[in-house]
Write a structure and sequence with these properties.
alpha+beta, three-stranded antiparallel β-sheet
Length: 148
């Protein structure tokens, strides 16, 4: 009797399942190999660079803001429309940007603005215009100073 001429049902299913499994494995390898073929020139790839961790220096002398003053509108209803930040620049040349954000009692920002300040050897007062807001709504202030 010739081997393989008569195969019972269970053996046939195993052979078919094995062949299908082998075919699926070959197709997976072939498709994975095609998926990684990318032909790009270096001009088609955006440039990317980074730094190691770098220490961030405070742009404010002694890293302290001396005082924050509130400027209100000149007529009723009196609202905060400007914040005066008193501080000393770390450098005597160049400029800085002073950002002010006002927050409500839930810590949500309700107003803010920014202004540019020229460096000085003396203490400076930076007036930052903000969107008018009722003084009763202001619970927190955040000031960020960036050297330009």
């Amino acid at each position: 009797m010739i081997l393989g001429m008569y195969v019972n049902g269970g053996d046939r299913r195993r052979k078919v399942a094995f062949l299908l499994l082998a075919l699926a494995a070959v197709m997976a390898v072939a498709s994975a190999a095609l998926a990684v073929v990318i032909a790009l020139g270096s001009t088609a790839i955006d440039q990317l660079g980074g730094t190691d961790q770098v220490e961030v220096y405070c742009p404010v002398n002694s890293c302290q803001i001396t005082r924050v003053k509130w400027i209100l509108t000149s007529s009723y209803p009196y609202e905060v429309d400007q914040v005066k930040v008193v501080w000393q620049t770390a450098s005597t040349s160049g400029s800085y940007t002073v950002y002010v954000t006002l927050f409500d009692d839930g810590g949500n920002p309700i107003s803010g603005g920014f202004a540019t300040q020229t460096a000085s050897s003396s203490p400076v007062e930076t007036d930052v215009n903000v969107d008018n807001v009722a003084p009763s709504q202001v619970y927190y202030v955040q000031i960020v100073i960036v050297q330009n």
